[in-house]
Amino acid sequence: LTVIERDPRLSAFLATNLPSRVRVLTADALTVRLPAARHFAGNLPFRGATEILLRLLGSGMEAGVFLVQEEVADRLAASAGSREYGRLTVRFALEGRFSPGRQVPSSAFYPPPRVRGRVLVWEREHPTLPRPLEGCLEKLLAGAFAHRRKMLGGTLPGVLRAWGGSPRERPERLLAQANWPEDWPRRRAEEIPPEAYRSLAERLAEAPGPSG
Q1: Which of 22, 98, 146, 161 is most buried as measured by Cβ atoms within 10 A of its Cβ?
Q2: Share of the chain above pLDDT 90, in %
Q3: End-to-end CA distance of the chain
Q4: Are residues 90 and 158 in the same domain?
Q5: Both 199 and 143 in a single domain?
Q6: Residue 83's domain is classified under what CATH number?
Q7: Cβ–Cβ < 8 Å for 163, 201
Q8: Residues 207, 163: contact at Cβ < 8 Å?
């Protein structure tokens, strides 16, 4: 068992009070070399929690239990069509599933924050995304969710044309090849399921990269 704690005082306390078989590292979870593990648990800082979770996802995390800010938990466990559904929801959903657990009141922390926490359980259901596909997916999601209130018909074609200066009809052809719903121009980004974004990213991974 390896414990990572950034605060030197808490790290020293843990090293003194935990069994000798537990290795305690005084380090930042965002920069430290992660242990070769597949199961993780943590009380994550409310600032930086998503970045830490993305690192763990990239390391091949199979399962985990975390305490995060309630708003973050709502986004990560959201369903397509909900207000909380966004880029992070799609990214994690393509590899597994977050299930929200019990709510933790602000009074459980010291000093108490202004927001509540929530337990979040992660289970992997699909293999880690290949790096080239992950890069295309990130750029696609950034463009699709950049204007959440607008219909995709007015925003997505411009994002797709950036892949190599494609002709005007190419975005529609790419979307048809990716089996997107025919009414996608009248939908918003949060109404498209994760699998559709992956299918489109796979087509884009075969095309020239975004210009500029």
Answers
A1: 98
A2: 83
A3: 45
A4: no
A5: yes
A6: 3.40.50.150
A7: no
A8: yes
